[in-house]
Design goal:
Shape: globular
Strand order of the largest sheet: 3-2-1-4-5
Order of helices and strands: HHEEEHEHEHHH
Structural class: alpha/beta
Helix content: 40-55%
Number of helices: 7
């Protein structure tokens, strides 16, 4: 569609303006990014279906501000076919300012609220999995609070979680501290602490 639009401009009596060309190029680039994103997402979801039943899925999240109900990105990671895979969802918090450096506010404009993302996207992906996380108590406090910001009750009462913080403190001798960076450094696992999907992928590798 974008190419046809440019061709029509070029065949007319007036040349297209620089703004028209720039806008068309930007739109074409955006469509390409969406196509690549959708392709990568499809591949990730296909790998999720091939993972072993009852294998673990790691979860990580970014908050938009200091309120626990302000999750603005949720990431999942798992191991399938001998490789680590992950997927993340942008989420528009129902209240509060966007103060995080992790996600630009403009990227959240058209995103769904947390409860919709959880019900429509996440819950079906994790229904047969053990969940893993770092510092799971704080994380699931935020997950529950972000869901209930909709005015609806959190639908899950009991969940089994493999907590990397607890397991590392229990099984890694002489660990200086139980921060995520210290644990992953000790295990020689690379991570981008500013990326929820990177933290989730590092967590699943650590476990």
């Amino acid at each position: 569609t974008t190419t046809s639009s440019l061709n029509r401009h070029q065949s007319g009596s007036a040349a297209p303006s620089a703004r028209t060309i720039n806008n068309a190029a930007t739109k074409k680039a955006s469509l390409t990014e969406v196509a690549v994103m959708n392709s990568n997402t499809q591949k990730a979801l296909e790998s999720l279906r091939r993972r072993e039943i009852n294998s673990s899925i790691a979860i990580a999240a970014d908050l938009a501000n200091d309120n626990p109900n302000s999750i603005c990105r949720l990431a999942l990671a798992w191991i399938s076919d001998g490789n680590v895979h992950g997927i993340s969802y942008l989420i528009k918090p129902r209240e509060g300012p966007i103060e995080t450096r992790h996600v630009a506010e403009a990227r959240l404009k058209d995103s769904k609220p947390f409860d919709a993302v959880w019900d429509e996207e996440v819950s079906v992906l994790i229904e047969d999995a053990f969940l893993s996380a770092y510092h799971s108590e704080d994380l699931f406090t935020s997950i529950k609070a972000s869901y209930e910001a909709s005015g609806r009750k959190w639908p899950i009462h009991d969940v089994y979680i493999r907590d990397l913080q607890f397991l590392a403190a229990t099984y890694i001798p002489n660990l200086a501290n139980d921060s995520l960076t210290s644990i992953l450094h000790r295990m020689d696992i690379a991570v981008d602490m500013d990326s929820a999907i990177s933290r989730a992928m590092a967590c699943i590798c650590g476990l």
